[in-house]
Write a structure and sequence with these properties.
The chain is α+β, with helices and mostly antiparallel strands. The model has no long low-confidence stretch (mean pLDDT 80). Helix content is 22%, strand content 46%.
Length: 167
């Protein structure tokens, strides 16, 4: 009888140790971003003019660097939003401005960079002063990796451009 209980206790002990090992391993896993190239960075954000009146049509270039595998131009274009802001830091009070996303071309100096032309009309009714336009990549899930089976977060990225609204 004693051997049966000792064997059962031993089995419970082994199962407990194995369970703890699995639990600790799963909690200590590295972030998938550590092993996968899953970055989209805004390299530059510029406009032909930086001082203008409300209602002005602006055209500019946005360069992104991406290490994602199997991502198309349409996905990169949809990742980026443009905001009107009182400062160079993105926050929830910034106003998103709809813009026309031009085609993406590969940067001739770096094949991992894409250049997108953008066009927008500044809203009417803006008060004169110094502001910023922000190009922003929001947090989002993207599938990447050599087999395309690992889902990770594309981290947020913001680039700012100072502008002046004229009277």
């Amino acid at each position: 009888m004693f051997n049966l209980q000792a064997g059962s206790v031993f089995k419970v002990f082994i199962v407990t140790i194995l369970s703890l090992t699995v639990l600790l391993h799963s909690q200590c896993k590295k972030d998938p971003l550590d092993d996968l190239n899953c970055r989209v960075d805004i390299v530059s954000f510029s406009s032909e003019i930086q001082a203008f009146y409300p209602g002005t049509d602006l055209t500019g270039l946005l360069t992104v660097s991406e290490d994602l595998e199997d991502i198309g131009d349409a996905e990169i274009r949809q990742m980026i939003s443009i905001y009107f802001s009182e400062d160079a830091l993105y926050n929830d009070t910034d106003t998103e401005i709809q813009y026309i996303r031009g085609s993406l071309t590969v940067d001739p100096d770096n094949e991992n960079r894409s250049i997108m032309e953008w066009n927008l009309t500044m809203p009417f009714g803006l008060e004169a002063g110094n502001y910023y336009l922000l190009a922003r990549i929001q947090n989002q899930t993207w599938v990447c990796g050599t087999n395309g089976d690992d889902s990770v977060w594309v981290l947020p990225e913001t680039s700012s451009m100072p502008i002046t609204i004229l009277e």
